[in-house]
Amino acid sequence: MQDKDYDYLIVGSGLFGAVFAHEAKKKGKRCLVIDKRSHAGGNVYCEKVEDINVHKYGAHIFHTNDKEIWDYVNSFVEFNRYTNSPVAVYKDELYNLPFNMNTFYQLWKVKTPKEAQLKIQSQIEELNITSPANLEEQAILLVGTDIYYKLIKGYTEKQWGRDAKDLPAFIIKRLPVRFTYDNNYFNDKYQGIPIGGYNKLVEGLLDGIEVRLDIDYFQNKEALDALADKIVFTGKIDQFFDYRFGKLEYRSLRFENEVHDVENYQGNAVVNYTEREVPYTRVIEHKHFEFGNQPKTVVTKEYSQEWNDNNEPYYPINDAKNTAMFKNYQDLAASEENVIFGGRLAEYRYYDMHQIIGSALKKVRDHFQE
Ligand code: FAD
Ligand code: UDP
Q: Which ligand has the nearest atom to the CA of 161?
């Protein structure tokens, strides 16, 4: 006899929760997914405006090196051939990103990899950085001072609201540095945007699974816990434990959408504004993710801001203080036998979509002991 209505209560319908639910259902488990938002999909959710898929919680480009994950997502929706190649604007000058031979030519008129390497070398040799202790040192070591001051420092300090010396080095290692003429922002083998938008991916994952929206787990915890044998929790780990060790910090974002009565506003999906004085970090023109030819266009200016209880927690601040606090929560989580913690908020990690999917698939395998 089954005494509870569900085997799993899944808190959060983002990619982690949706993948877990999909896989558990395949194994015959009864799942209930809840979300406090009024839609499923978490941060990959898109909203149609002027017939254009607008990435409501920030631009999302799928990329992975892992064929299993690529095949997995493509089994729900076909992906297009979009390749992310952002353009950086610094004081009215344009540069290609990521840092590559095109950028080096635009900056210094150097044409060969050797010349570019010598130029960077000449900018870092007197600084004597061996093991970079923070983002600033790491960035200078990778690309020299010119690029650091024009394309990294201002953007990074706007984005994180902190001095680049107080940020972890790993953040900047997300960006490739290449000595070839290649503007692809990612090194991964597979890249694209779901044809028809990310909602198709989420709908495919959640097909046949009960989803209840506008429900905050913490406002109904007792009643919800009583519904299922196990909980999969993808919300904020510190909130789960009543902020016992304090509040983990995040960076939040504010999005300003504009509809323009032109077919093509900026000629690219992503344009970064790297100088400190421009208040937003980037401008997204959503139609270019899907090669849209709608008569109008929607652009979003992205402003970075401090997180508080009234806005969304987007980026975990993985500095020493927060990392130590998270470790305390992680130890508590390990003793919660009936709760599986996963996703960007519960793991307090700057995970990309493919990493979230990979981690959800692994959690499922470990959990079902495959
Ligand atoms: P989320 O998508 O955050 O889902 C968590 C869900 O849980 C939310 O729907 C939330 O409402 C719900 N929830 C939380 N607490 C509760 C509660 N108490 N009760 C009920 N529901 C709750 N990745 C890439 O690969 N490429 C990109 O280009 C990229 N761009 C990004 C841009 C931005 C601005 C951001 C913030 C992230 C980006 N990412 C990108 C990362 C990507 O968004 C994440 O990897 C992925 O969406 C995380 O999925 P998740 O399920 O862990 O979390
Ligand atoms: N970054 C930068 N200049 C840019 C773009 C990115 O200095 O024009 C730095 C910045 O610190 C940022 C990090 O590189 O936080 C990672 O960039 P990414 O584009 O991966 O950020 P995300 O899309 O996750 O916000």
A: 2
